[in-house]
Design a protein that fits this description.
Two copies of one chain form a homodimer. The first copy, chain A, is α/β, with parallel strands linked by helices and about 375 residues long. The first copy, chain A, has two domains: about 5-15 and about 270-370, Aspartate Aminotransferase, domain 1; about 20-260, 3-Layer(aba) Sandwich (Aspartate Aminotransferase, domain 2), CATH 3.40.640.10. Chain A is built from 15 helices and twelve strands. Chain A has helices at about 10-15, 20-35, 35-60, 70-80, 100-110, 130-135, 160-170, 190-195, 240-245, 250-255, 255-265, 270-290, 315-320, 325-335, 360-370, and strands at about 5-10, 65-70, 90-95, 115-120, 145-150, 175-180, 195-200, 215, 305-310, 335, 340-345, 345-350. In chain A, the strands form three sheets. In chain A, strands 2-8-7-6-5-3-4 form a seven-stranded mixed beta sheet, with helices on both faces. Chain A has a three-stranded antiparallel beta sheet with strand order 9-12-11. In chain A, helix 2 (about 20-35) runs antiparallel to helix 3, helix 4 (about 70-80) packs parallel to helix 5 (about 100-110) and helix 12 (about 270-290) packs parallel to helix 15. The radius of gyration of chain A is 21 Å and the shape is globular.
Chain lengths: ~375, ~375
């Protein structure tokens, strides 16, 4: 449904919907309006088990570990605000984590007297073991929680979440994996990761309507988890608590089984992931060469999914100290939508690769930035 | 957009949308899909001040006191979970409050050691002063919060919120008015009520798309309020904190100015409210007579908005001890959608009156229930 007047290189922020998905949801929305009580109440009670079951299969988890929320921020808030923390407890997070998640950690720490400990992971990153070592070295006897992104937002690097979860949990540390970007981008087997909680968005790389995300919880810890919005189901178990969080448009959740089937039959999930990963890896190499910048992860794409973050050429960074004007210049003057990220005191550019993208899109970006850099 | 195969007497739960409103939102949703980054990010930053300003005028408050959320449950959770409570603090609430709100109070009390004190307000209620006296008598030196509904959900009674707010705040008690049903039903002048927080839904009686609600906060207390979903804006003031709560479908918020104008020009808010109040008051009297049941509020409608709750005839209550089967019988056998409420150990029926309802709708309900009662 994207307009053809824009070169859209930011699938990663909010995703994009195939027309068939939008139209499926719109039909559901009209059905809701025909009889809102029936559709929002009785129908959802009847449909939720099969919605959760189809998503659980896709994610590689069990239905009774899975709950739905509206977005990854809501998932993170539900988990962090359910923790019982004490002064002195440490919440450990790499500096590659998403900005909003850092804010939620700070809020929870402020309320409880816990401390947020941010571990700096310098770039370039050479391999997974380096990431494991850096994060592991930051764990202490006071660490209560490790929060790691599966695919980081500012730097687009795949973290070795399975290895880190094993190390942390062996020390009694809870592990929250923020997989906001992972579903649909990586071949997920959530239960094999072994996290305490794994959360993800569906409206990014699974291409559902906006408003669909999930939490997978270790069965041993599921009784202590509550949604950010406490409602009728409180103390009736996590399924009742999460299934109803006030009057919402529940059609994004209802659309999940359709989207999973439709993409499988139209393109195939494996083929889509392979295509996107190859294109992102190719664009990564091509842009590093075009701009003569050092890559922040290996050029073989071994730490990439379907996004890549690039350093901007030095001369561009000299003209643009802030992200807003540079982003707006690319959008307004060159009709290129691409995110400029501020991280570790510098500006970066992140490209996404989705089926609607063509090599020409990235070549245009390469040329525009090269010319801007003089 | 309601199907004409159902007699829809439950506008109160989830509202219903005029076709023009649905189509306006659908056009916005398509616009979002054309360029999601522009629409969700830059456009919302630009539009939020005018959205909040037009709603503030409608509600009788100032723009800088007003924040948007998705529904009343999210509003209540934001407020209650922002409170700094200590063991021994009392949270006072009449037993007419909404079930989900009781649950949020219990959760917050459980986390902090505070106590929820439920004050029983017996029916029938004869006048406002009786309500003021009962609630006032339950206040103690330990009462930190009074939570009162403007129009109650199970009993559909208008509480004297201005008088109760004055009494409570004079004693240093914070007052949260749950106006879930009030906007569009009552002629609101929120600031004149004098509550610490006033919250309401827009997708009920204002007929916006599902996913629009608000919080109005006393300026002296606004710095201590945080959304249930902490995100990028944390510690940048309430406007930044509430304007972005993760990736959501923000088109319900964007539709607010259109709905406010459209209903004003199509029917007029005053005329709509007057029509609905008159019809609810008439149905109240007619149903009490038809079923020979005692009214729970005065028959002149002085404590009603555009809903009325009726006791069910004794013989019906003998056959149906639970609300589900009775609701489903009316829906499936008689194509009448009307909520059966459980409250104070008994079953009740609540009718709503909205422009699409006709006197015949209520007469059909009267006949069906009379025949069922034998």
């Amino acid at each position: 449904m994207l307009g053809n007047d824009v070169t859209f290189l930011n699938h990663g922020s909010f995703g994009a919907r195939p027309t068939a998905v939008h139209e499926h949801q719109e039909a559901l929305r009209r059905q809701v309006e025909r009889q809102p009580i029936q559709a929002i109440d009785a129908d959802m009670v009847e449909l939720m088990p099969s919605i959760r079951s189809s998503l659980a299969t896709f994610l590689g988890t069990a239905t009774d570990r899975l709950d739905l929320v509206a977005n990854a921020s809501e998932a993170v808030n539900s988990i962090l605000r359910s923790l019982e923390l004490s002064p002195g407890d440490e919440l450990l997070v790499p500096d590659h984590a998403y900005g909003a998640v850092h804010q939620t950690l700070r809020y929870v720490a402020h309320r409880t007297g816990a401390t947020v400990k941010v571990v700096h992971v310098p770039v370039p990153v050479h391999d997974s073991q380096e990431l494991v070592n850096l994060v592991q070295d930051a764990m202490t006897d006071r660490t209560r929680l490790l929060l790691i992104d599966h695919v980081t937002s500012p730097t687009a690097i795949r973290f070795p979440v399975r290895e880190l979860a094993a190390v942390a949990r062996a020390r009694g540390i809870d592990v929250l994996v923020d997989g906001a970007h992972a579903p649909g981008m990586l071949d997920l087997k959530v239960d094999s990761i072994g996290a305490t909680w794994y959360i993800g968005n569906l409206h990014k790389w699974v291409c559902t309507p906006i408003g669909a995300a999930f939490i997978v919880t270790d069965p041993d810890r599921i009784d202590t988890l509550h949604p950010a919005i406490i409602s009728h189901g409180y103390q009736q178990g996590h399924v009742e608590e999460f299934n109803w969080q006030g009057t919402r448009d529940y059609t994004p959740w209802r659309s999940i089984p359709f989207v999973l089937d439709w993409i499988q039959s139209e393109w195939g999930w494996d083929e889509m992931r392979r295509h996107n990963h190859q294109m992102a890896s190719w664009a990564h190499v091509m842009l590093c060469e075009a701009w003569e910048v050092e890559p922040i992860s290996p050029l073989d794409g071994s730490l990439l999914g379907s996004m890549a973050t690039l350093a901007l050429p030095e001369s561009i960074r000299a003209s643009y100290q802030q992200l807003g004007p540079l982003h707006d210049h690319l959008r307004d003057e060159h009709a290129i939508e691409v995110p400029i990220m501020e991280w570790d005191g510098r500006l970066w550019l992140r490209v996404s690769a989705q089926l609607y993208n063509r090599p020409e899109d990235y070549r245009r970006l390469a040329d525009v930035v090269r010319i801007m850099a003089g």
